[in-house]
Amino acid sequence: MKYTVLVIDDDEPIHFMTKNLLGSEFNLVHAKNAQEAIDILSNTKINLILSDIHMPGLTGLELLESLRQDDEKKKIPVLVMTNLPTVEKEKKALDLGAADFIKKELFTSNKERILELVRMKLVTDIDVTDLEEDLADNKNKLVMRLMESALSGSFNDTVDVLCSELLAILDSNFLGFWIVNRESSELIHFYGEDKPDDSSLAAFNEEQSFKQLQSTQEPYLCNHIYNDELGFFTDFSKEHKLSAEIAVPLFSINEKNLLMNSLKVPEKSSMFGVIVIKRSVLFSSNEFMLISRLITQTGSILWRLYKKTVS
Prior knowledge:
Blueprint: E1 4-8, H1 12-22, E2 27-31, H2 34-41, E3 48-52, H3 60-67, E4 78-82, H4 87-95, E5 100-103, H5 106-109, H6 111-123, H7 133-151, H8 155-170, E6 174-180, E7 185-192, H9 198-202, H10 208-216, E8 220-222, H11 234-239, E9 244-251, H12 255-260, E10 271-279, H13 285-310
Parallel strand pairs: 1-2, 1-3, 3-4, 4-5
Antiparallel strand pairs: 6-7, 6-10, 8-9, 9-10
Helix pairs in contact: 7-8, 8-13
């Protein structure tokens, strides 16, 4: 499956450049002004919009503002292109929900950066039906911060952004990020007041929950880990009254390959990380659906950055 990207610009060379850069990986649809774009949006499923900010008639910012008031189109992610970014225009675009700015000079000076932005925005575009407004707003803020950090190229900083934002969104008491190795796993980021003792952490790979994550390649939700087979560090969790748990595996697949596989992790993919989140407040199904998909899909960004640290 190829994702469809709508390119809106009155400058003809931009259409040639986007076709050359993105055409082999995505279906491209082209519009030379906002009204032409609106007509396309009315009868074509669009996964991402690349829009110029300066156009005759309805400007890119005005189009973005109108899109955000259209219930059917407001969830389409938008990347804004411009030759002349300003702090004021950037702030307004971001306030209106634009994912980021693309300086047009990047089409010649740093083509890979544009591909990274497009791929990252698509893998972080997660729509959960009937999601509470606060949770949706917090998710959007997390995605913006995550993309900003990922563009810097730092694996550790990007993991820290993801985990700290998840901790705040879920009001959790415990969050750990493990890098998975063949014989043992390393806890590289931890958030919370208390954590299991060293012997328990050393036995992470021996936990039944770890083995299930490996075999099923699926995240799980358990709201009562004390008497169930699922749940890490049961004794520790009982002591600190952390009955609710979400665990999500991360896999060695980058954004490009995940998108080419329709955002599904291929069977037999190797697991390179695990995120475990615990709290005393029960997790709702919507929270689980959003968080598990968000971690799984952004895991492709983390894998790309992690490979750079070990190469």
